[in-house]
Amino acid sequence: MAVDYRNQTTLITGASSGLGALFARRLAARGSNLVLVARRTDRLESLAAELSGVQVTTIGMDLAQPGAGGKLAAAVAEQGIEVTSLINNAGFGTHTRFHEADPQRITDEITLNVTSLTEISRAFIEGLRAHGGGVLVNVASIAAYQPGPTLAVYAATKAYVLSFTEALWSESRGTGLRVMALSPGPTNTEFFDVAGQNADGGMARMSADRVVDQAIRALDRRNPPPSLITGLPNRIAIGAQRLAGRRLTLAILGAMMRQTDRR
């Protein structure tokens, strides 16, 4: 049964493009008011202008900066907005060997993918639990399920997101809050403009629409799963890697990334 998001307000980070923008469109169509957060305020304003029938608030903020989670919570509170659903979508990856990565970029990646996501979750979860009818979605990745040669920091941050979110799923049972970690495989978004086009390891990319539609359908269930891997091929691949063991999996993943880097 489709969940009714009327009389809800959903905060979406990384809402200026990709999965974040699509979540905004889908939830607005379900009647949710929105708080859209990203660095690129021009894109947020453009997105807000196309969404009708709901109240849309835009907040321009770089969540990769220290303390961004608290600043975002304060900005929302200043406007008197009660957030009842949260989608932590903001994040980025770095495709390079770790010893060649820029140290500041590593710090920014961990801050955005882990620290800010955790701070934002903590800032709003009490309100989400009290409301009892919303969702908390943290966007992880299939990279969360195994180490990622040439994506070492990204995979590690997403492993944190997966573990953290599944724990919140357990803690939130019985409150009415639906918590889920969303783990897409390679997806046609601007992620690869930042991480590098070869960061997909040669795997086929899903459309962003399919990823979001599968997530929405999962959240419509009476008891959504603690985590969702989108796309049957991705679920099969992760299952096979678990059976193969760590040493063999790392050998295969390392070979895949070296092969794509030679293109």
TrEMBL record:
Any one GO molecular-function label of the UniProt entry: oxidoreductase activity
UniProt cross-references to InterPro entries, sorted A to Z: KR_dom, NAD(P)-bd_dom_sf, SDR_fam
CDD domains in UniProt: SDR_c
Residues annotated as domain Ketoreductase: 8-185
Alphabetical keyword list: Oxidoreductase
SUPFAM superfamilies: NAD(P)-binding Rossmann-fold domains
Pfam family, one: adh_short
Gene3D superfamilies: NAD(P)-binding Rossmann-like Domain
Cellular component, GO annotation: membrane
Recorded family membership: Belongs to the short-chain dehydrogenases/reductases (SDR) family.
Protein name (record): Ketoreductase domain-containing protein
